[in-house]
Amino acid sequence: MPKKYEDVDSLVDEILEKNRSRWKLEVIRYYSFDDFKQDIKLHVWKKFHKWDQTKAFAPWCSKLITNQLINKKRNLFSNHSKPCSDCHWNKGMDACGWTASGLQCGECKDFSHWEKTKKSAYEMKIAGSIEADDGEILIGDHGDINYEGFLKSLGERLRKEVDDDMSQISLVTLKIFNYSWVENLSDDEISAKMGYKSNEKDRSPGYRNLSLHRKYIKNIAKEMLEKEDHDFA
Known about the structure:
Elements: H1 5-18, H2 33-47, H3 57-78, E1 90-92, E2 95-96, H4 109-117, H5 119-127, H6 147-165, H7 168-182, H8 187-194, H9 207-225
Antiparallel strand pairs: 1-2
Helix pairs in contact: 1-2, 1-3, 6-7, 7-9
């Protein structure tokens, strides 16, 4: 009988813990290894249908985690960073060997572009700290964003994934998005529509599935909000 993700969930935890020593990004205040674990478990769950079940799960999962670890390190340090970091003229301590002033500044076209488009995001990454939400808030305090317009754009993004991926997981994600944020149904109502049941004491039906799908949706929403264009009218 084919295995389900729930059958290997605890093994994923074990593999992640074995990789904890490779994290070495404690300097990042807003993104901890526990955050990484949650994102990776979501990624493994999303890719689970691609695992060839005639082969061992652990090596396949370990490779997936290793690739994500490399990508995450690159993204955390490289995205939005100053172009000076790998520039030949970088003399360190904000000094530049190319500009007339001797400083890393707008005299450089690449620096000027970074300053106009990515500097604020870079400063937020360095100084900011993101608190975990309660699992129910999709969009935070973004007064300049049209909420209904954003939800429409987010729904279109998820529908495109269904068209591109054609997987049952993508279709379920879209359904849960519509039930949760378009129709505003309760968890019990959604679980009933999805046919979810629970064998765990004091746990509502489908809580694990709802949590995984909503985490994925919120990651997509966060990605959209981090783009330079916030016009979702």
